[in-house]
Amino acid sequence: MDRYAVLYSSSHRTRLLGRFQRLRSAGRMCDVVLETNGASFPCHRALLASSSDYFWALFGEATAERSACRVELPALTPVGLDVILDFLYSGWLSLSAGTLGDVLEAARYLQVDTAVSICQRYIVDDLGAENCCRYANLAEQHALSDAVEAANFTIAAELATLLRERRGDLLDLNLQSLMVVLEAEEIPTVKEVELVKLALDWLGENGPLPLLQSNLLLSRLRFGLVAPADLARLSHASKAMATPLIRSQVTRALEYHRTGSERPIRQNKQSTLRATDRVLLVGGSSSPDCPQQRVLTFNLKTRTFAPLTSCLPLRLRNHCVCSLGGFLFVVGGEVVSEEDRKPVVTEASNQVWRYDPRFECWQQVESMMQRRTKFACCVANNSIYAIGGQKTPADSGAPAATLASVEFYDLEAGAWRREAPLPGPLHGHACAALQQNIFVSGGLSDNSGAPLIPGQSQSRREVLRWDHAGRLWEKAAPMSIGRFGHRMASVHGYIYAFPGMYEPFSDIERYDPGADHWTRLRPLVAASFGYGMAAMPTGSILVFGGRKWSNGQEVVLKSVLEYEPKKDQWREICQLPRPLTGTECTLLPVPD
User: Fold this and answer.
1) How is 41-58 classified by DSSP, letter by letter?
2) Of 284, 375, 388, 277, nearest to 331 (Cα)?
3) What is the pTM of this model?
């Protein structure tokens, strides 16, 4: 049997189209003329039919146009038809912002799907604040799903600029796109009250709408993020706000604002910020004795820091922070003041401050029953637990007393309640919540308050578990290392213990609650303490700054480290704006 080969030449197709284009330009061998709005385009019937499903059907055997010399296409503009014919003859599609609508209309009408796809890609690539609303309308009109999604995303991202500079474009936006934008989980730098005004202005320009559509639009607003005075004023600004559905949502929002201490546990979508979680670095400074009142935010995606617009009401050290229901809580610690430009530590505090990122304001809530410093704090069962620590006596010369007491903040009642105390006094310990239980590890149990001495093993290895159902403290498997001033985090169903002060090897341990067993993992890159730490939703753990010993001196660090528990790997991802120690970290949704 003879051997044979099948070979392909791409240049043949290009050359063939090129010759057809030359014939068209010269008007030779054309057997049909397409006409629209006074413009004529001589063409070749065979090429049109082979390139477009519309022309294939138009020039079929049973149509009047099969042998017609002229075909009218009044639905198309000359510009759009000319560009599409050039594409059919050459494979090149000439697009601009001004001609895109005409070309897309022609491509859709003539069923040239490849040209439609190119138009969609052009829209996605060309999106910006100056054209996103117009492109959204165009993409919605022609059912270009990818372009619609991209345009709506751009509108939400650029909404602050659009409200300021191109409000008319927003008022011309199609209803579906506006509803998607008002549903967005993140709209940078735009207050919810501005979104309410936009929706009402849009209804004024495009209304009246059927009741169902008006309700669908306004129900996407988050009235719980609007101040009560603004909400009351806006609720009378339009008839659309007076429908039973919207009126009930406004009423629920006003009731939410009146809940006081319960607000963090009364969250719903209407009171949830349109923002992603940021790491908040609360307090700390480049010196452990001179804490600052500033609060930094860290964006993991961009790896950038920014100051929170509102500072801590007090200078604190050895405090605790936690987040609950989208609110930041700063609990206890030592209040630091200045005398003759020198830091002076007053007694331990029992104050609790709550920060609401919705309105960027601090509020002092119910104080703890016990003043505490060097204690542990975490959230479990919708309550904030304050565990152990030290209290500073009124007599400044007396040593600090170590505490065994435990209390929790009952947000429903707006009061702190006593809980079963620890088996013994403890300070410098760490805690983490897992599966509705609280684990407490390490620390010192002495009552003297004496500082740790390097090289001496005084820290505890013991681990306690708070059984919420039984309301008692139980012993769990001890760590292999005694720790003090360390950190704990719960990730993927495990608890991780990180180094504290004066630990020689910087080892990390992982606790498996099912097996009641600790496993040693890869150590921290460099022995450090006094760092801030936060567990991310992805499962990674971030370590911010801290201190380490170098040539017999303490050095404050700028590094930001990331630990991947599944890979047991460390890496430095960026650096802090300046050295930082003594900061406390938590995750909180904060608008840009």
Assistant:
1) EEE-HHHHHHH-HHHHHH
2) 375
3) 0.87
